TrEMBL record:
It is found in: Cell inner membrane; Cell membrane. It comes from the Bacteria. Residues 78-271, 362-562 form the ABC transmembrane type-1 domain. It holds the Pfam family BPD_transp_1. InterPro entries: MetI-like, MetI-like_sf. Its main location: membrane. Keywords: Cell inner membrane, Cell membrane, Membrane, Transmembrane, Transmembrane helix, Transport. Belongs to the binding-protein-dependent transport system permease family. The chain crosses the membrane at residues 25-55, 75-104, 116-137, 152-171, 208-232, 252-272, 304-327, 368-387, 399-424, 444-462, 491-509, 541-562. This is ABC transporter permease. Gene3D superfamilies: MetI-like. SUPFAM superfamilies: MetI-like. PROSITE patterns: ABC_TM1.
Amino acid sequence: MDRDSGRLSRSRRGGLRRGLRPAPILWGAAVAIPLGFLAIFFAWPVAALVVRGFVSDGVLDLTGFTEVLSRPRTWRLVGLTLTQAAGGTAFSVLLGLPLAYLLYRRTFPGRGLVRGLVTVPFVLPAVVVGVAFRALFAPGGTLGFLRLEESLAGIVVALVFFNVSVVVRTVGGLWERLDPRTEEAAASLGAGPARVFRTVTLPSLGPAIASAASVVFLFCATAFGVVLVLGGVRYGTIETEIWTRTTQFLDLRSASVLSILQLVVISGALAVSARARRRREAALHLVSSRGSARALSWRSPGDATAALVGAAIVAGLIVLPLAGLVARSFREPDGSWGPANYVALGTTGERNALVVTVWEATATSLRIALTATVISLVVGGLVALVVSRRPRSVGARRAVGTFDALFMLPLGVSAVTVGFGFLITMDQPVLGVDLRTSGLLVPVAQAVVAIPLVVRTVLPVLRAIDPRLREVAAVLGSGPGRVLRTVDLPIALRSVGLATGFAFAVSLGEFGATSFLARPDGATLPVVIFRLIGRPGAENYGMALAASVVLAALTATVMMMAERLRDERAGGEF
């Protein structure tokens, strides 16, 4: 009997080892495919861009740096970039905290709808946001009296519109899990609400606030479409200067130097972001129980204040610009109201401003976004799968950490830099395919931008899976592939759906890289909108407004549908 029991025990241990031991081919491919993609479509273009800044005619030449860095304009642009990033980050955190409290610590009818509404700005195309705020701040616009058109303050407001949802979700995910008994104990000892928040709640939320702030700073520092549309000729950033030097002056040398300068600034912010994210994830793991959200009480001064402030933020910061955009899209060129701008979307605009119609560009955008989504799901899914594992050896854990960090790099490198890098490297066939004529160049560039979001969406769910579930499946004789199929995939399926929505929406509205790569006859909807607002004529501007509404409706619909698949258990970053 003991002999049989020993054999059974050894058999179970053998099954466990077989089920959990990485199959060399399976896990080798899971690592090699993403690394190959990153090397070809990110590392190579960025490295080539860096080399162009240091090398001229095959020899080391630093005169380009001397020339660019000696220009007063360069340092003015650096100052404006850092100023707008700091302002956008500060106000995003300031306005995001009351919304996080309201949406994650209190319950009320329609909370899910408001959460979805707050998420929409994050994935709205930058060009749409720029057009919306331009219409809002114009002399005849709703807020024209504030004189924010072509101002730094107007740019910061638009950046806060974009990024407040990052703060709400990142901070709210941790706030929701805090045990309320700690706050109740402080209150019972005589601490007032303000003191409880300052001495108990705020320190507990510190890792999440730092993580959100670092990510928002990255997004604000690399903002492109919003600054290009709202900044006018007075306000620009390193990002817009790279685009201007490349597309208007063909000054690739200066653009390369500026890209290197931007990479230095962003690398520091990215390092801070990675450290803050690790602290946030550690804080989430230390939370032993989920704090239960309570019903909103209007009798509580704190709840009433949070509700009023939250309503003002949602109405003034989110609803007003979008509602204003929709209203202005029905203002016809002659000053009357009607659907003429939408009817004109089937044309190429006043004086043939476009090569294709807006509806043709919409079809192109949908097709490209679908391809980019498939690419980003495959690559990002493999990255999340590998990084979610917890190796026992120190060396393996460091390798997994490095692997994770590598695929976060596109999050901190601007899409303009990626597009510029493609422009100077993809003139040669890659893997036997000439991407310039294959139609894959734009979706690949969009996938590079979307992959980090896919990883950050799926990874927390995979990490939250109890490893004992995999061990049980392995003991029962399941191999690595079957363990993935029967344990990981069913649990992560909802997060994959959410990642699909994020990737599709981000690809649909991507403008930075696409503006370099899209051909006139294959222009996407954001590119078409930018071309329309850059052409004279009231009809072209009206078409730009109507096309912006179409693009905003598409991205909002995708995200509202995807939001229903969010797995709140994992406290995802986005």
